[in-house]
Amino acid sequence: MDVKAYIASGILELYVAGALSPEENLEVQHYALQYPEVKSEIEAIEKSILELTRTTSPKLSKDSFKTVRAQLDDVIQFKPEASERKTPWGNYMGWAASILLAVGLIGVYLQNNQLKTEIEITNQEKENLEQILSTTQEKVIDKEALLQQLRAKNITVVALGGQAVSPDSYAKAYWNPEESKVIIDAQGLPEPPPGYAYQVWSLKLTPLTPTSIGLLEDFATDESKLFALSNPNESEAFGITLEPEGGSETPTLEQLYTLGAVGP
Amino acid sequence: MDLDNLIQRFQKKDTVAFEALYDMYAENICGVINVILKDPERSQELCQDVFVKIWSKSDQYDTSKGRFFTWILNIARNAAIDELRSKSHKNQKKNLPVDSLVGIYENSEDLNGKIDTIGLQSLLKGLKDKCILLIDLLYFKGFTQKEAAKELKTPIGTIKTRIRSCISEIRKNMA
Fold first, then answer.
1. Of B67, B111, B142, the CB nearest to A16
2. Domain residues for A169?
């Protein structure tokens, strides 16, 4: 730094006047510590101001400090006295307030946590209910669609009666030849044993020609026991047999559960 | 006794140190107040009040506030200006007389010979009015560089260079 230029700038005069910002003050002090010339210049400027201000003084009496001193005692005595009396109470009150505040805060914190937990539980319940609602809605839509199909104009209803292997069994086929679709209502069939599945056959009677139109998949888990299958055949009858899982090429007639002819 | 040490002891409420500081600066502080109030008796009273205030604020001084003298100078100026405003300028807070030092310099008999007129005149000898006015604003009224520039309708940079040359003249007069 150019110390001479810094001194000549007039910043030190402003520093002594108190006309600088705190940041500028610190900068000047920094240079004053670093450069003795800066420090002595500040002192010289201050000295000139001290000299100047001294001339305008109304000249104080020699014991003028006594008046000030008397008031200092007031300040000195007042402070400790006031604080001696006040400090313990102030302290106790302070601590008590702090403890109360802490307890209060812990209480609020715990309550807040409790509320958060309750909100979480409620949210979980809400989600579950929404899930149920959504599933239910889907089911309703499915059933409505199904009902719509069952009620269609061209539907042919075929009742399938129980056969020798299971005389109490029954089923119904709702066939829509135009759309080549058949819906099997298998509510009257017993649950198939493990490793077996029901297979639906479309039959031509003369000569007897079975054509597989599909398996009743996931029989046990399908609550409605309604199965939509594709049937492009000119069926004369429908039969349901129990076959090994995956189905068979030809029906196992010993395991024919239900059979019904398409009405005239 | 070195100044830094005195200030440290003063900040620890050492009355002996404070008395030493009072002896060093009381006349100066009272002089500043007197320039603002132009009332020697009231200035003495206010000056004592200011030192009590300095004592009670002792923990507020730190070096970011500048020189110790600058700090107490600031307290004194504020107290005197407040006094002046509360007395006669209640409704015209901005309307402080700006020519007090020039006025005192030129008509020092106004203060009934209670100040060191000879000393003042020898210090300010040869200084132009605009110099005395700038010294008044910066040292006695506590104007910032910007405020002084606005008051004197001068560029801000001029304030710095001008105060440098004005103070230099006083220093020459002192020699």
1. B67
2. 156-261
- Please give the DSSP secondary-structure letter assigned to residue A20: S
Q: Where are the domains of chain B?
A: 1-96, 100-175
Mean pLDDT of B70-89: 86
- CATH number for the domain that contains residue A197: 2.60.40
Rounded-to-integer distance, Cα A242 and Cα A239, Å: 10
Q: Which CATH architecture has domain B100-175?
A: Orthogonal Bundle (1.10)
| CA count, 13 A, side-chain hemisphere, A136 | 6
Give the pLDDT mean for B37-56: 92
Query: What are A215's strand-pairing partners?
Result: A199
Indicate the length of chain B as a whole number: 175
Binned at pLDDT 50, 70 and 90, residue A244 comes out as: very high
Across chain B, mean pLDDT equals: 87
How far is it, in rounded angstroms, from Cα B93 to Cα A88? Answer: 45
User: B92 to chain A, minimum CA–CA distance in Å?
Assistant: 24
Distance from chain centroid for Cα A252 = 55
Q: pLDDT above 70 covers what percent of chain B?
A: 88
Q: Are A53 and B114 inside 8 Å of each other by CB?
A: no
**What percentage of chain A carries pLDDT values higher than 70?**
94
| pLDDT at B38 > cutoff 90 | no
Cβ atoms within 10 Å of B57's Cβ, excluding its own = 12
ipTM of the complex: 0.91
B117 vs A231, B10, B25, B106, B111, CA distance in Å?
128, 33, 19, 10, 9
- B27, A57: Cβ pair inside 8 Å? yes
Q: B74–A26: do the CB atoms touch at under 8 Å?
A: no
Token pair, residue B160, equals 């710095």
Q: How far apart are CA B66 and CA A22, in angstroms?
A: 8
Specify the pLDDT at position B161: 94
B77: Cβ–Cβ under 8 A, 6 or more apart, which residues? B32, B36, B140, B141, B142
- Tokens 């017993």 appear where? A190
Q: What is the mean pLDDT of residues A95-102?
A: 87
CATH for the B1-96 domain, from 3.40.50.10170, 3.40.50.80, 1.10.1740.10, 3.40.50.300:
1.10.1740.10
A86-98: average pLDDT: 74
Rounded to 5, what percent of chain A is helix, strand, coil? Answer: 50, 20, 30
